[in-house]
Amino acid sequence: MSALDRIDDLTRLTVRAAELWPDRTAWVFDTGGTPRSLTFAEVNARSDELAGALAGLGVAPGDRVALMLRNGPDFPLLWLATAKLGAAMVPVNINYRELDGAHVLSDSGARVVICEPEFADMLRRIAPDAGDARVLTAAELPAGKPTPEFPTPAGERPVNIQYTSGTTGAPKGCVLPHRYWTTLARGMITEHPTIGSDDVMLTAQPFHYIDPQWHVALGLAAGARLVVLDRFHPSTFWAKVREHDVTWFYCLGMMPTLLLRQPPSPEDKKHRVRAVHASAIPRELHAELEQRWGVPWFEAFGMTETGADIRMRPEDHDELVGSGCIGSPVPGRDVVILGDDDQPLPRGETGELAIRGVGLMLGYYHRPEDTARAFRNGWFHTGDLARMDDRGRIFYVGRTKDMIRRSGENISADEVERALLQHPDVRLAAVIGVPDDIRGEEVKALVVPADGADPSPDELAEHCARKLAYFKVPRYWKVVDDLPMTASERVAKGQLRSAEPLAGVYDRVARSWL
Predict the structure, then answer these.
(1) Least confident segment among 24-28, 293-297, 357-361, 432-436
(2) How many CB atoms lie within 10 A of CB 211?
(3) Which of 11, 48, 202, 290 is least surrounded, with the fewest CB atoms within 10 Å of its CB?
(4) The domain 1-23+32-177 belongs to what CATH superfamily?
C-alpha cells in the first residue's frame, strides 16, 4: 500500500502536497488580466489562514459554508479551509437568483455565505428566508491566524453539499464525503490517464460545478499543475492549451461540438496534449475530433452522486472510436444493467445503468426517501439507459426521462439531437416530447443556427429523414437564439418542458406556424 492509499481526506492531501512539492506551482488562474499562481506550500498556508478566519466567524465541524464565487483562488482555498474545519462547502451557482439561490441556502442550512460583491445585496435579501445566514464578501473575511488544531480527518465526513444541476425539479444536495474526492483522484493517478507530477491540467468549468473541484483534488494528489480559466471560450480554448503547455484536459456536454465549429488553424496540432477525456462525445464527431487535433479522445462517465465510474481504456480506444461506448467500469466500481423489475438484464439488452462501489455520495441531504429510492437494492440507479457487451463494456443509449414515447415507439432524444448536429447550419439542438392526443407524444426540436445560417424547418426535417426512421423526425420545430444550459454544459430540458409546448413552433405536418 502506497502513502497515497492511506490518505482518505482532503486535509491530509493538502498537507502532503505542501510537504512533497512546496515550491512547485499548484494553480494558475488565467481568468482575466495577468495570470495568478500559487505554490503547493502557499495553498496549504493560505487555506490554514482562511480556516482560522472561518473559525473566528463561528464555523464549527458539521456546519455548512456556502460559496457564490467566480473562478479564482478564493473558491478552492475556502473549500480546503472549510474541509480543514470539518465543515461542508455548499457551492452556489453564480447564475442563481432569488428563488433558486434561496432554495440552496435554506435547504443546506448554510451558516455563512461568502460571495462576490455583485451578489451580496441579493444574498442578504434572501438570507432571512434561508435561515438568516451571515453573508460576507471574500474581502470582508476577518484576518485569520492558522487554527492550531483541526478535527481528526475522517474519510466519511461530509465535505460538500453539492447540488445537482436540476434539469428537472428543484436541485437536490448530494452529500459528498472526503473519500469521494480521494477515491476519484487516486483512480486517475493509478489508472489511465495516469496523471503525474509532470502533467499540466486545464479546466474551463465554473467552480460551483464539480469538475474543477475534482481537478483540485487530483492536482493535490499527483503534484500536477492546474490551470483554471474564467469559463469556456471556444474561440480561444486551444490557444490557452498551447500557452500553458497543457498535457491533459477534460470537457463535456456541447464543448467538443463547439470546438469543432471553430475555423481550422495551422496551429491545431501544435500542442503538448497527450490525451483528452470527455463525457458524451458525439459519436459522429469522435474521429474528426482526433484528426483535427491529433490526439486521442477518451470517453468517461461519472455523476455528481457517484464520482468517476466508467472510462474508455487505451487498449480499447481504436476499436471504440465513434461507437458510442463510454468504456468499462473503473477499479472499485461494479456496474449492472437493470430491467424495469430492477433485475439484471442479459448482455446486449438495454436497461437502466446502476452502479455501486467505494467513494459514492452518502445520500441526498435531508431526503431519506429520495436516497433510499436511488440506492435501492444496494445499487445507485443512474436514470441512464445503457447496454453492456460480452466484454463488459458499456454503451450509452440515453436518459430514462429523455425518451419520447410516440405511437408505441421509444425515441431517444439524444439520437435525434445527434442527427441534427450533423447538419452544418445547426450549432445547438435540443429535442423534447410534447403531449399529443393521438400519439401520446410528438417530437419537438429546438435549434440554434450556426453563425450566419438560416435553415428552414422543412430542410432540417428532410435532413433528419435521411438519417433516422420516419417516426423519429420531429413534427414541431422552433428556431431560437440560444438554449438554457446547466452548469454541466447540458441543455436544461426542465426549462424547455415547462414552457408552452406549441408556442411559436412550425408544424411540419400542417406546414404552418402555430
Answers:
(1) 432-436
(2) 20
(3) 290
(4) ANL, N-terminal domain (3.40.50.12780)
